[in-house]
Amino acid sequence: MSYQVLARKYRPKSFDTLVGQEHVVRALSHALDHQRLHHAYLFTGTRGVGKTTLSRILAKSFNCETGISAHACGICDACTAIDAGRFVDYIEMDAASNRGVDEMAQLLEQAVYAPSNARFKVYMIDEVHMLTNHAFNSMLKTLEEPPDHVKFILATTDPQKIPVTVLSRCLQFNLKQMPPGHIVSHLDNILGQEGISFEAPALRLLAQGAHGSMRDALSLTDQAIAYAAGTVTLDAVQGMLGALDQSFLIRLLDALASKDGAGLLAVADEMATRSLSYNAALQDLGTLLHKIALAQTVPAAIADDMPEREHIVRLAGLFDAEEVQLFYQIAVHGRNELGLAPDEYAGFSMTLLRMLAFRPEAGGNVAKTAPVVAAPVPARLHIASPAAAAYSAPPTRQVAPPTAQIVTPTAAPVAVAAPVAPAPAPAAARSAVMSPGRAAFEAARNGGKLPAAPRAAVAPAALTPVAPVIAEAAPVMRTPTTVAPAPPWDEGEQPPMFGDIMSTPYEPEPKTEMKVAPAVAATMATPEPPAARIVPPALVPIAALDWEGNWPALAAALPVRGVAQQLAQQSELLTAEQGNGGLQLHFRLAMETLLSAGSVDKLSVALGEHFGQTVRISTEIGPVSHTAHAQANADRAERQREAEQLMQNDPFVKTMMREFDAVIVAGSIKPI
Q1: DSSP state, 144?
Q2: CATH number of the domain at 180-241, please?
Q3: Residue 468 and residue 505 in contact, taking contact as beta carbons nearer than 8 Å
Q4: What CATH number is given for 544-626 in this structure?
Q5: How far apart are CA 385 and CA 617, in angstroms?
Q6: Residue 121: pLDDT over 90
Q7: What's the pLDDT at 508?
Q8: DSSP designation for 542
């Protein structure tokens, strides 16, 4: 008698012996016991999870001579014939080879005839997603209303390719992948019946290699029995599958825990001498880190019979949870980037060194850094008007130009603190500095009630740090004195409502009187120069060329593009000499990459056409400042500053900011 493989010999023959699909078994058993039989069933799932097995068990339950039941006898003629594959009324059809409309029409023509010696005629169509659209359409009517003696069982590994018109006519059952624990217990039972000795870690490795398929697990077990000459051992299974010895990974993590870079590279070199797959090593390393993370958070999830359980528990105590998560992410990304590395060894070793480099110094805690000492900078304080201080504007608000400025040169280091928003002023203080129109608006919004305001209030000055500027004036002290105007109505009278606002005479805002030292008065009246202006060097004109020597202006006007244009605009002209051989120009560049793609030759041609003679260019690498690019940036910044200053000094904008607390959105002002 010929040998029968384990996958066929131990195929389940009843619902009781089916492994890993309890949710499907429960639904089908209840339907059979209560005689609630559907005419079409659809089983979906990956390979080797029991689709064909379930269809045969279901066919036996339909046609068992003892009656329709979830527990077929297995010994009657119908049950034994279905198990042997010779039952005439159970037809298994391969849709991959019978996918046309003609084959489907022939099947439907035979379906109208009654079964020969069975209760139901069962059609099992495997890989049904391979049928053509015409074949699907031809079977829709029969699939929806078949004869009473016909049952359809469809099986597929890709249900997305099945039309929804077919799915809606079937009871759909999704078969899950087999968990490793179910596969190990099933292999244990089968090898026990076969009388073959084995090692438990070897079975777990076979279950992992099956990737959820019971048929794959049984096929690998057959191969392992032949490879190991009758004894399934861990070494034999590792050699057969090409699996990585976990000791390499454990040694890697031990070296990582002790921050031993030489130890990491020693393990990588040993793996290279044995020609082990670095891709598989990173995959197994990610799996091992996942188990370590489980051991840290859910220790019960680590099985007692796991071969490396002792090492996993030990490593879980050597690393913090944050470190394990970081190493896992690095291993996953390192595996994805392995194809981009110069070679697999470089990619694998760089992944290990990345883990070592990014590991926190103190158990996952952020290392403490020394305090940063600010460089010596001059401090400049901006004293806002009392009215602005009373309104307590947020730090991001842009207000009108200040009334006065104090410039204090400082030689020692000064720590500039972050601006602190002043505390909101009370309603009485706000009313003391409000204009009559604003006060009437506030009174109308509060139902006509406004608390009595004091006759005089001194508003605190708001201090806002701005860009440091060095001035020659000596530090002075000022005392702002603010006289608040009286409200336009008496204290006992009702404030005016909206209708009276227009009749209320307008009174100007209170003036701020400042006592300023005479030495500073002249400084305050003088406008500040722009903060970032590039002062070009003195131009050296070349009379022979009738050129004033302004290289930034010439570079911006040259008709060149691409890298040659960048070379012209980001270079600084150092010397220009007129000789018998033509014009010799010497430039300084900040980046050597600007000399690529023949940019120097293109610039020489453009300059030769401009000057009407031969131009030779020499270059050097170094810092540059007076370039066309820098000049354009400075001009752009100056236009932006002028636009912002013009907007803030606009009388209408000032009125809106004063009367209605309007603010200028930062970055919204653009020069035209």
Answers
A1: H
A2: 1.10.8.60
A3: no
A4: 3.30.300.150
A5: 58
A6: yes
A7: 47
A8: B
If one compares 325 and 410, the residue with the highest pLDDT of the two is: 325
Collapsing DSSP to helix, strand or coil, 618 comes out as: strand
Buried b (16+ CB within 10 A) or exposed e, 227-248: ebeeebbbebbbebbebbbbeb
Q: Which residues contact residue 522 at a Cβ distance below 8 angstroms, ignoring those fewer than 6 apart?
A: none
* H runs (alpha helix) in 504-623: 518-525, 551-557, 562-569, 599-611
The Cα–Cα gap between 217 and 237 comes to 12
Indicate if the pLDDT at residue 585 is higher than 70.
yes
Selection from 359-368, 574-583, 619-628 with the highest mean pLDDT? 619-628
Q: Which own/partner pairs from 18-22 qualify as long-range (CB within 8 Å, at least 24 positions apart)? A: 18/50, 18/53, 18/54, 18/57, 19/50, 19/178, 19/182, 19/186, 19/214, 20/49, 20/50, 20/176, 20/178, 20/179, 20/182, 20/214, 21/49, 21/50, 21/54, 21/175, 21/176
* Lookup: tokens for 602: 């293109």
Contacts 24+ apart (CB under 8 A), 257-260: 257/315, 257/318, 257/319, 259/356, 259/359
Q: Give the pLDDT of residue 434.
A: 54
Of 514, 32, 436, 5, nearest in space to 215 by CA: 5
549: left (phi over 0), alpha (psi -120 to 50) or beta: left
SS3 category, 364: coil
- Residue that is written with structure tokens 């998560």 in the block: 325
To the nearest whole percent, how much of the chain has pLDDT over 70?
Answer: 72
- pLDDT tens-digit readout, 527-583: 444 444 445 555 667 776 778 888 888 888 888 888 888 888 889 988 888 877 788
pLDDT at site 455? 44
Element (H, E) at 189: helix 180-194
With bands split at pLDDT 50, 70 and 90, how would you rate the model's confidence at 211?
confident
* Res. 419 pLDDT band, cuts 50 70 90: very low
Q: In 10 A of CB 96, how many CB atoms?
A: 12
The architecture (CATH level 2) of 6-174 comes to: 3-Layer(aba) Sandwich (3.40)
Signed CA dihedral, 451, 454, 457, 460: sign only = negative
Specify the pTM: 0.49
Local structure of residue 31 (DSSP, 8 states): H
**Of 58, 222, 246, which is closest to residue 155 (Cα–Cα)?**
58
CA dihedral 123, 129, 131, 133 (to 10 degrees): 120
Both tokens of 409, joined, read 């040169």
Contact partners, residue 84, CB within 8 Å, separation at least 6: none
Torsion of Cα atoms, 515 then 518 then 521 then 522, to 10°: 180
pLDDT in tens, 500-525: 434 444 444 444 343 434 443 333 43
**pLDDT value, residue 240:** 84
Rounded to whole angstroms, how far apart are CA atoms 438 and 149? 90
Q: Say how far apart CA 497 and CA 445 lie, in whole Å.
A: 9
Which carries the bigger pLDDT value, residue 420 or residue 650? 650
pLDDT of residue 541: 75
Whether the Cβ atoms of residue 120 and residue 150 lie closer than 8 Å to each other? yes
Whether the Cβ atoms of residue 443 and residue 496 lie closer than 8 Å to each other: yes
Domain residue ranges of the chain, discontinuous segments joined by +: 6-174, 180-241, 246-358, 382-395+402-410+424-523, 544-626
- CATH fold of 246-358 reads Zinc Finger, Delta Prime; domain 3 (1.20.272)
Say if residues 21 and 54 touch (Cβ distance below 8 Å): yes
Tell me the pLDDT tens digit for each residue of 435-473: 555 555 565 555 555 444 444 444 444 434 444 443 343
* Tokens representing residue 639 in the block: 């236009």
Q: What is the number of other CB atoms lying within 10 angstroms of the CB of residue 129?
A: 20
The answer to whether 455 and 431 are in contact (CB under 8 A) is no
